[in-house]
Amino acid sequence: MHRTQRQTEILRLVQLRGACSIGDLAERLEVSDETIRRTVKPLVSEGLLAKVHGGITLPDAGREPPFQNRMLENAEAKRRIAERVASLVSNGDSLMLDCGSTTAFVARALSQHSGLTVVTNSAEIARTLATNTSNRVFMAGGELRSDDTAALGPEALTFARQFRVRHAILSIGAMEIDGSLMVYHLAEAEFSRSVIDQAEQVIVAADASKFGRPSLVRICGPERMDVLVTDRRPPAALADSLTAAGARIEVAD
Fold first, then answer.
1. H helix or E strand, kind and range, residue 9
2. Are strands 136-139 and 165-171 parallel, antiparallel or unpaired?
3. Coil, strand or helix at 202
4. Angle at 208 between CA 103 and CA 148, to 5 degrees
5. pLDDT tens digit string along 24-34?
6. Residues 88, 65: contact at Cβ < 8 Å?
7. Short-list 141, 138, 171, 139, CA closest to 156
8. Who's near 37: CB < 8 A, 6+ residues apart?
9. CA-wise closest residue to 121 among 135, 104, 109
């Protein structure tokens, strides 16, 4: 592949996913990490891409897009992931779901379940699952964020810590190559940690665009996750990190 073709392909991949790690690009294009770094250098100089630790991104990809936009991004992948996550939940189970577009898809996929006990800080998820009268839905209090009507802050944390549930189902902003779970906002990370602490099993629902994407705040390392449900096998380095931490990877068909 000539350099111009390689640059075109790299731009296509980053525009598709929002961000890519150097290792993932090297594996996809069958070249060395150093070749990728040399190839992207002029693209960064022209302002077409931005460098982040371990990868490259679109210039504005460090900011999370609005919730309704995220509901449209990779919607088919999120739907498949949600169906697989729902298959891991039994009627009568107790679960916590954090705010996020993928967990909103999970809530829809759980509409055929019955007798669920649900704790969430998302008004969207609470509304979806409360319409089934066999469910019990507990909505965290606190200040509601205008973008996605999620409750965040000290009140939401105190509320979540009163429960003990079978499953925690998390939506994340990014997953680093070492398996760290990342989000864009400190308050979201704090709520996700409280959810993890109260659950017997932690399920992370994340489409492949999250792999290697830059984000701001670390939730935790991969050792706190039991299952990753995604739409495509992670890059080799990330898959190795998850396996070493004891996490199971499930790829939704």
1. helix 3-17
2. unpaired
3. strand
4. 30
5. 899 889 999 99
6. no
7. 141
8. 22
9. 104
Q: Does 1 score more than 50 pLDDT?
A: no
Rounded Cα distance between 167 and 86, Å, is 11
Please, are residues 184 and 147 in contact by the beta-carbon 8 Å criterion? no
pTM of structure = 0.75
Name residues whose C-beta falls within 8 Å of residue 69's C-beta, 6 or more positions apart in sequence: none
Instruction: Give the helix/strand (H/E) hosting 106.
Output: helix 101-109
- For residue 215, what pLDDT is reported? 77
Mean pLDDT of 98-104: 92
Q: How far is CA 84 from CA 8, 64, 98, 179, in A?
A: 34, 25, 17, 21
- Radius of gyration, CA atoms only, the chain: 19
Q: Is the pLDDT of residue 146 over 90?
A: no
